[in-house]
């Protein structure tokens, strides 16, 4: 019976170690997310279209849109809305002036919905892996 007890203890220790490793891996994945201020010091403004160039975005990263809500907004659009500067009915519109949007895997498109702003390159497209 003593041998059976030792096996149970070993199995319990292995299970505990596996759970600890799993918790560490989950924590590592969560802590590796990055927060990006769109437009850097200038914030969400005109001519920000090329801001994503050279950056690698991951699912879980956060985009921070900082702007004056009296002058701008952020509209999450699809590919067509991005290129046409026309949001579809039902597009999500952010208006806080400090919007924090967590990226899921795949492409994401954002424009300013104020007339003429998207056409003035106040739009970004990012792809999160």
Run of helices and strands: HEEEHEEEE
Quaternary assembly: single chain
Number of domains: 2
Corresponding CATH architecture of the largest domain: Sandwich
Uncertain spans = none
Largest sheet: 4 strands, antiparallel
The count of β-strands is: 7
**Which structural category do the helix and sheet elements fall into?**
alpha+beta
CATH class of the largest domain: Mainly Beta
Query: What is the global morphology?
Result: elongated
Proportion of helical residues:
25-40%
Q: What's the CATH superfamily of the largest domain, by name?
A: Cupredoxins -  blue copper proteins
Name the features:
single chain; 129 residues; alpha+beta; Immunoglobulin-like; 2 domains; four-stranded antiparallel sheet; three-stranded mixed sheet; 2 helices; elongated
Descriptive notes:
The chain has 129 residues and is of the alpha+beta class. The protein has two domains: 1-32; 33-128, Immunoglobulin-like, CATH 2.60.40. It contains two helices and seven strands; from the N terminus they run H-E-E-E-H-E-E-E-E. Strands 4-3-6-7 form a four-stranded antiparallel beta sheet. The termini are far apart. The model has no long low-confidence stretch (mean pLDDT 87).
Q: Layout of SSEs?
A:
Blueprint: H1 2-31, E1 35-37, E2 62-66, E3 74-77, H2 79-84, E4 92-94, E5 98-102, E6 106-111, E7 123-128
Compact summary:
This protein has 129 residues and is an alpha+beta fold.
């Amino acid at each position: 019976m003593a041998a059976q007890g030792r096996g149970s203890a070993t199995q319990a220790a292995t299970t505990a170690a596996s759970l600890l490793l799993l918790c560490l891996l989950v924590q590592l994945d969560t802590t590796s997310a990055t927060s990006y201020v769109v437009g850097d010091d200038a914030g969400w403004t005109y001519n920000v279209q090329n801001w994503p160039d050279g950056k690698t975005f991951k699912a879980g990263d956060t985009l921070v849109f900082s702007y004056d809500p009296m002058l701008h907004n952020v509209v999450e659009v699809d590919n067509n809305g991005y290129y046409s500067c026309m949001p579809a009915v039902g597009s999500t519109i952010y208006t806080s002036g400090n919007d924090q949007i967590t990226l899921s895997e795949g492409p994401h498109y954002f424009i300013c919905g104020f007339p003429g702003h998207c056409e003035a390159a106040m739009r970004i497209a990012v792809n999160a892996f």
